[in-house]
Amino acid sequence: MLLSEMNNTQLCKMKDELLQQVNAYGNMKLNLNMTRGKPCKKQLDLTTEVLKDVDIYTNSVDEYGVDCRNYGELYGIKGLRILLAPLVGASEDRIILGGSSSLNMMYDVMMKMVVFGADEHSAPWGTGKKVKFLCPSPGYDRHFAITELLGFDLIPVDMTDSGPDMDQVEALVANDPSVKGIWCIPVYSNPTGVIYSEDTIKRLAWMKTTAEDFRIFCDNAYPVHFLDQYDTLSVNILDECEKAGNPDRTFVFSSTSKITYPGSGIAILASSKRNILSYNKMLSKQTIGPNKMNQLLHLRAFKSFNDILVHMERQAAILRPKFDIVDQILRRELEGLGIAEWTHPTGGYFISFDCMEGCAKRTVEIAKNVGVEFTAAGATYPYGKDPLDRNIRIAPTLPPVEELKTAIQVLCTCVKLAGVEKLLETNH
Amino acid sequence: MLLSEMNNTQLCKMKDELLQQVNAYGNMKLNLNMTRGKPCKKQLDLTTEVLKDVDIYTNSVDEYGVDCRNYGELYGIKGLRILLAPLVGASEDRIILGGSSSLNMMYDVMMKMVVFGADEHSAPWGTGKKVKFLCPSPGYDRHFAITELLGFDLIPVDMTDSGPDMDQVEALVANDPSVKGIWCIPVYSNPTGVIYSEDTIKRLAWMKTTAEDFRIFCDNAYPVHFLDQYDTLSVNILDECEKAGNPDRTFVFSSTSKITYPGSGIAILASSKRNILSYNKMLSKQTIGPNKMNQLLHLRAFKSFNDILVHMERQAAILRPKFDIVDQILRRELEGLGIAEWTHPTGGYFISFDCMEGCAKRTVEIAKNVGVEFTAAGATYPYGKDPLDRNIRIAPTLPPVEELKTAIQVLCTCVKLAGVEKLLETNH
């Protein structure tokens, strides 16, 4: 029965039952953290099996004669650029390997836009000037945080099942030169799990922007992070931008953070030849280069891209039951009540959960009170403000299955209680 | 006999002999690269011996319970911050460990000054505004390059035997609010090998600056890179700044790049509690953290700071003969001619060589023509312009001893030839 069709007597009865459940959870002294999309210990152990016997010391010279122990190779070693190229969809000469954080590379590119400008013809985006940045929402809080830190105006754009609402995007970029860029996660988008459609990617590449230095920050964080089977995007955004005559429009980022170890993976940046050349020119002033021994480790751990896919299938086998259990519990507890919807991702790290309008904060609050912490409600929107207060990001990967079950059961109880409270308040 | 006291006949005769020598070198088809302060293969092998059997996989959890494989620990792992603290002279709570490049941390801090400002009370240094930066010269070209990239005015300051000429520095900072900072290498300064005196460090800490957001970028690149014996600075610049009531004035950088592997060391930043706190606040937006597995490797490779010193003594044993042979050849070939002076460093990676005014470029050019490449003349000055065209940086560490001997003999011949040419031209 839909909650909205219940009368106050029914709602009050339900509220009492839910409060009892909440009390029972409170008595369990739970301490569960569901806030972060972190790989779990089993996944880390899987990677340890792959890395622990890789020898990078007996011979530290790569196949091109580079001693990976010494200075040099600003772009990162060539063998690994070739191996990881499919993650970003660019040839190895348009790839730069970074340190252990692709977020840091995004920040770095963004800082260069602000201080140096997109290219020699463009003014720096500047400090203290109004720059607008498009934020498909719900989206990734740490993307939004970088552009917020820089004082940009964050403009929310609705997410649809096929990517950002392109009608909105096209309208926003068409008439305002201060709209300088957009955040995108084209595959298993955080948190919805959406895969951008061919049409979305083509429109991103071809759309007319007033700002000539408009840039797409395309964070391909989960290119091989399937739950069921590997599938490449049918359209390569860098190629499409080139076709469209906008070759320099897009920076594609990726990393091995959720392939090998989150704390010590390899970050990747790919773009047009021109962008990479100009980036590298600045890089040569900025750093003595990335950690090449870690690159050699990754290169020797995986003989081919297929080895990576085999490793990711093993990771998927750990994660699949977790995503399944979340969906099962949500369906069992919430189906037919008309108070919640959630996504059914085929990869990535998150499930996006929408409850009744105005209930997300309250839901997260009740859960926190009984010892289960979810990502702050609103975090998936610019400035942490979900205009409808309905989105919660579920991160099923880190906790063991039993803890995850408890956490999601708590979530269901809390979301029902928040819904009942809301309806009683409205009916009043 | 002083070259300057020779008559033209003597000079012409000498020129003929030198040209013959140069031709002989040319016939040897040399291909020697003396441009970079890179550790040599033997040094790398020494580090391989230390690292190759360190196990970071059987147990990747550090003594504080941090699984170094996963996300987290923005500051870097605590054990390593404690171990490396003596490199920067600060307690572990005022230290941030970075990636593999301390230069990158300097660039990063500098970019934050430009975009965000030194603190909440200070305006950003800004893009397109005139910022002046003091550059003790001869100094490190890659320091100068960062501030040049940002469009700052680079103001040369003379280097003395006890550090930057503090009379000049104090005069420059006293009356001009656009003078925002200074580059310093307090120990075995690049390229002179100078160790800053107590007095220099005290004056840097205590001097009155018009700019309240004046910052010392103190690159302690060679704190344990002695040739003879380890010696700490008698004055700690961070402590002295605190005493002077200027606690936030100094950022100290260091790294293990020339302790372990240049390409995969650990960069270090230390400063006041306030600076570190504010830096870390931004860091939390910018990155998911540094490579902690590499940190764990370093932590387990050296049980104590004394272990590091023992390792550095072994490195010194490799480098000492190289510095000695350079000095021997220079003395044998050039002493008494009055055309060259050079430093006698007790540590670090360079010897600073001064030839006759107006002869450095020509010397490097002749050497290059016979296949021996030295660091570009002028590189040790802002904008690559040595006003007296006399300084050449000698980097003795990379080549094997026999190659080094040849390279320095070539240098001596070239510097004599350039001197003779100059004198003949002047006498004309």
Structure description:
The structure is a homodimer of 428-residue chains. The first copy, chain A, has 13 helices and 13 strands. The first copy, chain A, is α/β, with parallel strands linked by helices. Chain A folds into two domains: 3-44 and 309-427, Aspartate Aminotransferase, domain 1, CATH 3.90.1150; 61-302, Type I PLP-dependent aspartate aminotransferase-like (Major domain) (Aspartate Aminotransferase, domain 2), CATH 3.40.640.10. Chain A has an eight-stranded mixed β-sheet with strand order 2-9-8-7-6-3-4-5, sandwiched between helices. In chain A, a hairpin with a 2-residue loop joins strand 4 and strand 5. Chain A starts with 7 loop residues before the first helix and ends with a helix. The mean pLDDT of chain A is 96. The interface between A and B is large, with 54 and 54 residues.
List keywords for this structure.
14% strand, 13 helices, homodimer, Aspartate Aminotransferase, domain 2, 13 strands, Aspartate Aminotransferase, domain 1, 42% helix, globular, 3-stranded antiparallel sheet, 428 residues, 8-stranded mixed sheet, alpha/beta
